[in-house]
């Protein structure tokens, strides 16, 4: 029997016949397959960094126009489909690309896309990226998107796009307003429309909010107006009066 010596030899001795008798072999039991995979009869494909990229991936491209540049930014997120054709089929983000005619931010945007893509391919829960990106604030100040939603930075805008995509493929659940809240917001908008038809024609009817609305601390949308002496958000229904 060949024995590999990994350390330096400092002394030696001749063993007797009894001492050279091989030790009993310990049999290590083979791990049983997981109950789910055993019941299915095949192994579920999981997202991991060693997973090879297919020749074709499904993708979505989002156009982002910010007041920071006269040129739009295009964000493409490609997805890989795991376990296709089975009840366990799942769509997971695999890579992200950002392109624009504006080259001012080219260097750090390329670095950011590579890091995000690496996190996507690592597998596991990648939804944490949304909050991490959306919590980045520009020291020069943020801006308002169309519709009155506040974006604290360009990085936060990228995080907002990723959040929308994760909701699209089902990795994030939509935590929108319930039926009661939707009814309340609709009533508030109807009341405001009855009071100020001009504001509705100029903003709310086009999917925006009145020009004099202020920022809501809950949904970060410029949709707070004074109704019946109370600050009320026309987007999420938040009200200081309950």
Description of the structure:
The protein is α+β, with helices and mostly antiparallel strands and 242 residues long. Helix content is 28%, strand content 18%. It has helices at 35-40, 106-122, 128-134, 154-168, 179-195, 197-202, and strands at 58-64, 73-82, 90-100, 143-144, 150-151, 214-215, 222-227, 230-233. The strands form three sheets. The protein has a three-stranded antiparallel sheet with strand order 1-2-3. A three-stranded antiparallel sheet has the order 6-7-8, with helices on one face. The chain has a two-stranded antiparallel sheet with strand order 4-5. Helix 3 packs antiparallel against helix 4 (154-168). The chain is elongated and about 105 Å long.
| Helix-strand category | alpha+beta
Q: What is the terminal separation in angstroms?
A: 81 Å
Residue share in helix: 25-40%
**Low-pLDDT regions:** 199-206
Shape: elongated
Order of helices and strands: HEEEHHEEHHHEEE
Number of strands: 8
* Rg over alpha carbons: 29 Å
Widest β-sheet, arrangement of strands? 1-2-3
Mean pLDDT: 80
Pick out its properties.
242 residues, alpha+beta, three-stranded antiparallel beta sheet, 6 helices, 8 strands, 28% helix
Short description:
The chain is built from 6 helices and 8 strands.
């Amino acid at each position: 029997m060949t024995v590999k010596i990994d350390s330096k030899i400092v002394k030696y001795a001749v063993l007797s016949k009894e001492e050279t008798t091989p030790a009993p072999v310990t049999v290590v039991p083979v791990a049983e397959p997981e109950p789910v995979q055993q019941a299915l009869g095949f192994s579920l494909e999981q997202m991991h960094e060693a997973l090879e990229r297919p020749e074709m991936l499904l993708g979505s491209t989002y156009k982002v126009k910010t007041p920071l540049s006269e040129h739009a930014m295009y964000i493409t997120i490609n997805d890989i489909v795991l376990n296709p054709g089975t009840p366990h089929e799942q769509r997971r983000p695999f890579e992200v690309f950002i392109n624009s005619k504006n080259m001012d931010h080219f260097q750090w945007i390329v670095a950011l896309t590579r890091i995000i893509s690496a996190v996507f391919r690592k597998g596991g829960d990648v939804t944490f990226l949304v909050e991490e990106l959306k919590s980045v604030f520009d020291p020069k100040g943020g801006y308002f998107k169309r519709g009155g939603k506040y974006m604290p930075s360009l990085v936060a805008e990228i995080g907002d796009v990723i959040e929308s995509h994760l909701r699209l493929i089902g990795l994030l659940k939509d935590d929108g307003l319930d039926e009661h809240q939707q009814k309340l917001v609709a009533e508030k908008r109807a009341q405001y429309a009855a009071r100020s038809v001009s504001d509705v024609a100029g903003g709310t009817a086009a999917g925006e909010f009145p020009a004099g609305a202020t920022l809501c601390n809950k949904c970060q949308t410029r949709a707070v107006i004074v109704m019946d002496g109370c600050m009320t958000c026309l987007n999420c229904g938040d009200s200081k009066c309950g």
